[in-house]
Amino acid sequence: MLRAILPVVALLFAVAAGAAEPRDPYQYFFNPLTGDLKAELADAKAAGKQAVFLMFEQEGCPGCAHMKSRVLNRPEVQQFYREHFLNFAIDIFGAVPVTDFAGRPHTEKTYAQSLAIKGTPTLVFYDTDGREAVRILGTVQGADEFMALGDFVASGAYRTRNFAQYKQELHRKKGS
Q1: CATH of the domain at 109
Q2: What are the backbone angles phi and psi of residue 99, rounded to the nearest 5°?
Q3: Over residues 77-81, mean pLDDT
Q4: How many Cβ atoms from other residues are within 10 Å of residue 29's Cβ?
Q5: How many CB atoms lie within 10 A of CB 136?
Q6: CB 124 within 8 A of CB 115
Q7: All residues at 6 or more sequence positions from 31 whose CB lies less than 8 Å from its CB, including other chains
Q8: Vertex 37, ends 32 and 39: CA angle to 5°?
């Protein structure tokens, strides 16, 4: 009897462990970019998303590598962000054509320049009207902080306070 149960128990543990395994952010976190952010914004609005999330990145960026290998590869992060946002990666040196939220043509590089992106990663959320809602230059500490950032935007809290204030409120709530 025990011999019959052991393979089932081992399979259950393997499935449970596999659920938490890191996954490729380009497959599971980022949505494929059509190149037309204006159309993507309309799709986000129609799908009931709270915002469009852009991560401005570049090859060889240690902070970008950190975000992809420690935060964006987490299944719970991927699920939450895919549920609430359309998520896109923009290469600040890329030559891929991009139409911005106002319908103006760019390359990824000229689009990043038009937004005065100063470093990578830069994390930017746009509300469903195409207005910049939140911008963070640099990495977040980890998946928990990135989830808090997503909740900050998805809940609309960004309209009444900044992210530092929001994090303090969360910290106070946890302490009580």
Answers
A1: 3.40.30.10
A2: -100, 125
A3: 98
A4: 24
A5: 16
A6: yes
A7: 40, 82, 86, 87, 88
A8: 95
Which conformational region is residue 140 in: left (phi greater than 0), alpha (psi within -120 to 50 degrees), or beta?
beta
Residue 8: which residues within 8 A CB-CB, separation 6 or more? none
- For residue 44, which of 172, 153, 163, 158 has the smallest C-alpha distance? 153
Tokens representing 83?
């549920």
Domain count for the chain, please give it. 1
Q: Which residue from 60, 164, 58 is spatially nearest to 119, judged by alpha carbons?
A: 58
Q: Does the pLDDT of residue 13 top 70, yes or no? A: no
- Judge residue 122's burial from the number of C-beta atoms within 10 Å of its C-beta, 0-12 exposed, 13-18 middle, 19 or more buried: buried
Angle (nearest 5°) at CA 117 between 112 and 120: 105
Helix or strand holding residue 72 (H, E): none
Residue 1 lies in a domain: no
> What's the burial of 64, exposed, middle or buried (CB within 10 Å: 0-12/13-18/19+)?
buried
- pLDDT tens profile 134-159: 999 999 989 999 999 999 999 999 99
11 in a structural domain: no
Alpha-helical segments (H) within 21-74? 25-28, 37-46, 62-66
Q: What is the pTM of this model?
A: 0.86
